[in-house]
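Dear support,

I submitted the protein below through the web form. The confirmation email said the job was done, but the results page showed an empty box. After a refresh the structure appeared. I'm attaching both so you can tell me whether what I see now is the final result or a partial one.
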Amino acid sequence: MSETSAERAIERHRIPVIDRMMDVLALLERRPNGATIREMVETLKLPRTTVYRILNTLQHHDMVRRSEDGNLRLGPRLLALAARTIGNAHDYDLASLSMPHLRSLSELTGEGSKVSVLDEDGVLVIAAVQGTREYALTVVPGQRLPLHAGAASKVLLAYLPKPELAIRLGGKLAGYTELTIRDPHRLSAELAKIRRQGWAHDKGEYAPSINAFAAPIPDRSGKVVAALSVPYLAGADKAHMEKIRAAVIAVAGAIAADLPARPTALAQTA
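What the results page shows now:
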């Protein structure tokens, strides 16, 4: 079958309403602050009743949620699905496994905590718990962050195989603050330091007033599959910073210990 014939066959077997649903989700993906039904109708050139029925169905399945300002945003159900596919298709739900540990960590430190994974050309937060301190920073599941700026991002980069690291950092490194590491040689030295000590510290590389500690979460084979991090406001006293650093390392290890072993080749073929 020629390529043209194959394309025609695919077109004949597509479901138009699912195509429209994907258009709605794609629009919301491009709008972190959400969108109104009117904006979707005007942008997608679809009938209002079609958009309304699609959104009702997506809301029913928690794929879309209406925020306090009335805008519609992508819902948390998508994160649960993403957690099953990101990072070589884990055979476990990393986000769900992490949540009890994140709650304990946030209760201990008073700060928000989150688990992040590499996702294409960036870093994706797949699980987060809010802090209890008065000025604890808000952490949001679904947030996307750059590859080279921030504690969790540096941890995830530090444990990549060298060929993959070279590919991911092959382009120009963007600057977000005066402290963002944009020089490849400086960044390589920083990643080597992280591998030696087993944790990373962000002193304002992504946002000027936000610091963070992060530690790797390896699976049973030793491969780092995620990073645990706790962001906090700059200016914290040394005792609180050390409490966060030590807790991040300990809890990252606890999450790693809870990850199931990968099935052996024998078990997979049995």
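Response: this is the final, complete result; the empty box was a page-load delay. Residues 263-270 have pLDDT under 50 and may be disordered.
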